[in-house]
Amino acid sequence: MDDLGYLFAAYTVIWVGLLAYILFLAQKQRQLRRDIDWLKKMMKKTD
Questions:
Q1: Beta strands per DSSP E along the chain
Q2: Which of 25, 7, 5, 27 lies closest to 17, judged by CA?
Q3: Residue 23 to residues 16, 26, 31: CA-CA distances in angstroms?
C-alpha cells in the first residue's frame, strides 16, 4: 500500500512539471506574437 503513495507523488510531480512547461511555452508564444506584431508595424512605417 505504501507504493501507491510513491506512485501518486510521482504522477503529481510529472503533471505539475508538464503544466509548468505548458505555461512557460504559452508565455513565450505571447512574447513572440508581440515581437512579430512590432516588426510588422516597423515594416509598415518604412514603406
A1: none
A2: 25
A3: 11, 5, 12
Cell, residue 41: 508595424
CA distance 1 to 31: 46
Please state, in angstroms and rounded to a whole number, the distance separating the CA atoms of residues 44 and 40.
Answer: 6
pLDDT values of the chain reduced to their tens digit, one per residue, 47 residues: 678 999 999 999 999 999 999 999 999 999 999 999 999 999 998 87
Give the predicted TM-score (pTM) of the model. Answer: 0.74
Closest by Cα among 2, 23, 20, 24 to 12: 20
In terms of C-beta density within 10 A (0-12 exposed, 13-18 middle, 19 or more buried), how is residue 42 classed?
A: exposed
